[in-house]
Amino acid sequence: xxxxxxxxxxxxxxxxxxxxxxxxxLILALGTFAVGTDAYIVAGxxxxxxxxxxxxxxxxxxSATIFAITYAILSPVLATVAARVPRRVLLVxxxxxxxxxxxxxxxxxxxxxxxxxxxLAAAGAAAYTPxxxxxxxxxxxxxxxxxxxxxxxxxxxxATAIGVPTGNxxxxxxxxxxxxxxxxxxxxxxxxxxxxxxxxxxGNPRVPLRDRLRALRHPxxxxxxxxxxxxxxxxxxxxxxxxxxxxxxxVRPAAEMWLLFLYGVGAVAxxxxxxxxxxxxxxxxxxxxxxxxxxxxxxxxxxxxxSGVHWLPLIGLLMMAWGANTWFxxxxxxxxxxxxxxxxxxxxxxxxxSALYTGIALGTVLGGVLLPISASVALAASAVxxxxxxxxxxxxxxxx
Length: 400
Hints:
By secondary structure, this protein is mostly helical. The chain has helices at 18-40, 46-53, 57-60, 62-81, 87-107, 111-138, 145-173, 176-197, 209-212, 219-235, 242-248, 253-281, 283-307, 312-327, 329-340, 345-370, 375-395.
């Protein structure tokens, strides 16, 4: 879940050694790890948050919805508004906003105040993530650019494997407020690291928002982009409710952290394998296999939830498959969009990120509506949406 909205200034590479550049990208990756942990951590302690704020788990899960909606809307807007701000100033400010927002979430006495702080957190994330990628690619020689981007993106994917289980553990040992306090501390440390290690870099030329949205005129972009939203609605929306679903499946609190970790392992592996496979075999085949796997996985989870068959090894395998079949989508979809509008690569990748977060928002809303009925119904509905992804992919397969 990553986008680079502005091309890197080539002049920033002059005089920079390869070692210095890669060291700076590691600090930027720490920041994206903090952003990813903040975005996903609510899934780890949702029941405790709901109980503390005197709301249902479905209502508490809407904190993930408001984060996703805000990110989707603000990502292109902030890229336009803050284009000329020096990069170090922008990145440090974004991380400090994120730290302040998480501290506010940790201290929020009521649900409305929590929601307000999640909006602020999404604004910080939307300002940091795309610019961290652009800066990373500018800090290293051209031959190292892919490696630098992979390092920064790795912070987000590792957050799914480590950040959410850690949040779940913190919620069990201390409280959900302590978990968000740890995220605030991590954001502050990242901000300090960026300030000390990253060189001063100028902002970018301002590109009007209407020019950024011009890519939507390409027929291929219009055809491909809705699949990102539909795919994330099907695959990721229920993840915000992972802990309540696991408890429906008979999982004890002591095992929750490990099952969330397995989801994260699957997510990291799925993202890496999908990128390599899309380059070799083309994105259509990768997406078809992934959506088929997602349909089967969600249907199996729905069956397990409805039948009362609670075998822990099977649940662990399904959680890993869920992660892999959720995170395989982004590389293949980005490749299709870049092929549809090769002259506007940065813009279409940014639009894909907005479509992605829109899908997350829709999915969490759907989960909030269906989960009170039953986990089996919610999972079955997501499986149906995954099957619809296959239908949509078949209808738009000529857009490669």
